[in-house]
Amino acid sequence: MLKQWKSDEEQGVQALKAYEQAISKAPTHFNAVERLIRRCKDPEATISTIKHVADELPCGPNRIAALNFGLKVLNKWGQLIKRMPKPERGQVEVKASTIYVHFKKSLADANTEVALRRNRLEGYLPLFADAQDVDAVVRALAAVFEGECEGVLGEAGREEAGTLHGILRNLAAIYEIGMERLIRELLSKYLRTPVVFASESSELQLPSIRYHATLRLYSSQEAILHRRVAYLLRIQPMSDAITALLDFAYKSPGIAFLCRVRALGILLSIASSDDIALVLPPADVHQYLQALLYIADFEHVGIRQSTADFLSCDKAALAR
Length: 320
Prior knowledge:
Blueprint: H1 2-23, H2 28-38, H3 43-56, H4 61-82, H5 86-118, H6 125-129, H7 134-153, H8 156-159, H9 163-174, H10 179-192, H11 207-215, H12 221-232, H13 238-250, H14 257-270, H15 273-277, H16 282-300, H17 307-312, H18 315-319
Helix pairs in contact: 1-5, 2-4, 3-4, 4-5, 5-9, 7-9, 7-12, 10-12, 12-14, 13-14, 14-16
């Protein structure tokens, strides 16, 4: 037990040191050796030295400064390579290109680690370290959002500064991924997730009743999805959020009716009537929402019809 306690204590000390390195401001250690490295005239030897120094430095401003300096040297080397005779140039170009890609990856890894450690989110480091392509990075960004969203929403003091949005924006920028793509992919994922009714709702009730009962439960998957989407869309202008939710509800053939209800429910929770009126009459949106709920109920009892058929039919005759 004592050995385990020491191990935990050592891990805590290491984590604290890593955090202190991440939040330090100036790359003082690298500045001390940069002047010596600049004296080297051979570009390839210079780059090899820089990489060795970067690997020896703790992850923080010092390593980042070293890697950025290495990329500058690589760019200068690239200019020299272009002036070389063709027979010699080909092999050297391939080598320089490979080293450049490696430096870019190392710099992205270092910037990511610093960004995560600064916000005490180092638990997500393996997701980014294992990411081999843009899709994997997007999945890692989604994991950060999903893992931290509830905590941010539960802490008004942190939420007011848009902390999580800022973290995601910084991480996405490291990998040159636009926030628009991340928002689009997360929005599609959350809005298309099948509705899962809470066990507290009765199976004898119609879907519309079970849906509202489930949504009222704070810990239900449906309520969590509502909160995630509402918070996610705060990073966009309200007009863009409204358009995205309306497009999903009105222009998504083949999507479950209750998923479209979810989109309109979120819309009505984040946008005012005046905001919605700039795109569609709010009364029409409410009417369409009710129609989707009715159609979901009819589908449940074996009566299938399209939204167009339902909206145009004689409601009194249908009720009879």
